[in-house]
């Protein structure tokens, strides 16, 4: 009898628990038994492994084969276990040295000819393996993605034969170095293209500098979507930990992670017909949804009232907690979802309520019903609301070009850096206790704020959101603490939410 053990990783949300792939050969009639809670994709690996071994020039053991994927109570899915199963079988049969297996973790799907195909979640698996002290062998495409994780030696292979030659010490694989696109080479739409709209531009700058949620309201054609498309160009750079977190989540999605997007904040813009599952994630094998794929970036919802109300309501919990829990009968996973919500909408169904040159024919009941699609609790989670007004063609042509995205981004980056040095996070993430420490108010200003919020009938949550925006205004102006004028300006950005229900 012979036994060999090699290591791989399963996926459970963003976590990648260790899996021991145990191959045991015994005397008896030839058979191949696979145990350890494998799903259909993993069960089918028996035929892929058999064909790949034979096509790669190895002998397939004509014995009673048992492969166990431990721990047994952890569901195993996808073809990532093909490669470790093949290597464990060869080691158990004496065709590879057993001692070499202890220093590596492996993942990869096998083709019938022995070629290696990329696997989903490579970056998440390698990120979880950082403290194991083992190197990781992956298909070449997956290895390029996984090499972004510091502290792990990554080897890339194209075929099963190359992996075997490396483990046998015959022909060593070369370690993969990360291939990163410089951020300076990324071209975004420029904020200079937007004429006028000073209040909206300031709100956009505030949202970028503090990570605040922003709602833009205005008639069609006033530049709401144009402004939203320019937000990525003024966002502060990601930290190494933020970039790794974001890339790991994206690697779990059906489209995987593109190397060109490393350290670029995600910008997701789902269509208003998207379902609740598309936003939060799910499925029998849960995958991340739009809110998780936007982790550490922006989720833009255009035409906000056109979304199904039940879809919008699923945003409320992750906007507060920064994560989403998905429970299914056999699987429960948690994905991070600390995203910045940016939304745009028309003031009424026809879009022309308050337009200076066009007549709105919507009744008050239609307007009320249209706005009622956005619940009060969801509105309460926006830090800023701004009206994007309508400008005539003559006004647009007469207005001078504004600041470029690079100028605004310099201020945003400086404000963001002050926040990280002071508190280790963005202002929008500050708790009430932390906010009291970094944003103390004189008694007169506190009384004024309480009076205004009481008059506007705003919630306790709104109180702290106003303080966070005021703190960001102070950071943009390099002030130690918010001034009264900055506090009033923050209240003004909140005033539109208080009056949202009125026509």
Summary?
Helix content is 38%, strand content 16%. The protein has 503 residues and is α/β, with parallel strands linked by helices. The termini are far apart.
Q: Tell me the major beta sheet.
A: 5 strands, parallel
What's the count of strands?
18
What's the number of helices? 21
Helix and strand content put the structural class at alpha/beta
For the record, the count of structural domains works out to 2
Radius of gyration: 27 Å
Q: Write the CATH fold name of the largest domain.
A: Rossmann fold
**The CATH H-level homologous superfamily of the largest domain:** P-loop containing nucleotide triphosphate hydrolases
Q: Approximately what portion of the residues adopt beta-strand conformation?
A: 15-25%
Q: Per CATH, which architecture of the largest domain?
A: 3-Layer(aba) Sandwich
Helix content: 25-40%
Question: So what's the CATH class of the largest domain?
Answer: Alpha Beta
Main-sheet strand order equals 11-14-17-10-18
- The whole-number mean of residue pLDDT values reads 90
What is the approximate shape?
elongated
Keywords:
single chain, 503 residues, alpha/beta, Ribosomal Protein S5, domain 2, Rossmann fold, 2 domains, 5-stranded parallel sheet, 4-stranded mixed sheet, 16% strand, elongated
């Amino acid at each position: 009898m012979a036994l060999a053990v090699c290591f791989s990783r399963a996926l459970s949300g963003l976590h990648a628990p260790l899996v021991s792939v145990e191959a045991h050969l015994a005397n008896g009639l030839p058979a191949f038994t696979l145990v350890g809670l494998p799903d259909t994709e993993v069960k089918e690996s028996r035929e892929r492994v058999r064909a790949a071994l034979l096509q790669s020039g190895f002998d397939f053991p004509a014995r009673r084969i048992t492969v166990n994927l431990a721990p047994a109570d952890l569901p195993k899915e996808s073809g990532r276990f093909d490669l470790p199963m093949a290597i464990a079988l060869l080691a158990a049969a004496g065709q590879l040295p057993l001692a070499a297996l202890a220093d590596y973790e492996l993942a990869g799907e096998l083709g019938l000819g022995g070629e290696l195909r990329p696997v989903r979640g490579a970056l998440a698996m390698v990120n979880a393996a950082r403290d194991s002290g083992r190197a990781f062998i992956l298909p070449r495409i997956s290895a390029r993605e996984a090499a972004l994780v510091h502290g792990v030696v990554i080897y890339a292979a194209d075929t099963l034969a190359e992996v075997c030659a490396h483990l046998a010490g015959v022909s060593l694989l070369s370690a993969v170095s990360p291939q990163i696109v410089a951020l300076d080479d990324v071209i975004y739409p420029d904020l200079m293209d937007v004429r006028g709209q000073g209040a909206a531009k300031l709100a956009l700058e505030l949202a970028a500098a503090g990570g605040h949620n922003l709602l833009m309201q205005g008639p069609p054609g006033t530049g709401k979507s144009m402004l939203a498309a320019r937000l990525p160009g003024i966002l502060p750079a990601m930290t190494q930990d933020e970039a790794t977190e974001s890339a790991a989540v994206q690697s779990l999605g059906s489209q995987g992670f593109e190397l060109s997007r490393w350290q670029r904040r995600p910008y997701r813009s789902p269509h208003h017909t998207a379902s609740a599952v598309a936003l939060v994630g799910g499925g029998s094998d849960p995958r991340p949804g739009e809110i998780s794929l936007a982790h550490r970036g922006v989720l833009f919802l255009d035409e906000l009232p056109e979304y199904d109300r039940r879809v919008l309501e699923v945003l409320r919990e992750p906007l507060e907690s920064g994560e989403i829990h998905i429970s299914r009968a056999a699987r429960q996973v948690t994905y991070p979802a600390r995203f910045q919500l940016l939304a745009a909408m028309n003031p009424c169904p026809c879009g022309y309520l308050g337009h200076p040159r066009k007549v709105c024919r919507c009744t008050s009941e239609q307007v009320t019903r249209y706005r009622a699609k956005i619940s009060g609790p969801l509105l309460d989670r926006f830090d800023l609301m701004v009206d994007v007004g309508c400008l005539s063609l003559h006004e647009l042509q007469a207005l001078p070009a504004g600041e470029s995205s690079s100028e605004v981004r310099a201020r945003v980056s400086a404000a963001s850096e002050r926040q990280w040095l002071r508190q280790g996070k963005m202002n929008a993430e500050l708790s009430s206790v932390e906010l009291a420490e970094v944003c103390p108010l004189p008694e007169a200003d506190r009384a004024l704020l309480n009076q205004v919020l009481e008059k506007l009938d705003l919630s306790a949550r709104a109180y702290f959101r106003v303080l966070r925006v005021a703190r960001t205004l102070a950071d943009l102006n390099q002030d130690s603490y918010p001034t009264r004028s900055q506090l009033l300006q923050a209240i003004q950005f909140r005033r539109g939410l208080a009056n949202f229900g009125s026509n």
